[in-house]
Design a protein that fits this description.
The chain is an all-alpha fold. It has one domain. Helix content is about 85%, strand content about 0%. The protein contains four helices and no strands.
């Protein structure tokens, strides 16, 4: 019951991050120029850590390690998508 209440409390945040990621993936397939694809990748790389920081700040469990983890994962996203996919 505790997990269900947590999800319901943060449902908007999870729907938002899902839409951000799905939109970026769709953009990689639908956008025609490489420059627009790179903008989509960089957009997700900026929005993902921002979302994580806001989410953890609202949950009152934000730490420097969490912030660094989100930015490290964002760099991994950028590197993977720009080097391998785009």
């Amino acid at each position: 019951m505790k997990n269900q209440n947590y999800f319901l409390k943060h449902a908007f945040e999870y729907v938002l991050i899902f839409l951000i990621i799905v939109t970026a993936i769709a953009g990689l397939f639908l956008l025609e120029t490489i420059h627009l694809k790179r903008v989509a990748v960089l957009g997700v790389a900026l929005l993902y850590p921002l979302w994580g920081i806001i989410h953890h700040w609202e949950s009152k469990n934000l730490t420097m390690e969490t912030i660094l983890e989100y930015f490290a994962f964002a760099l991994l996203i950028v590197w993977t998508l720009l080097v391998v996919v785009v």
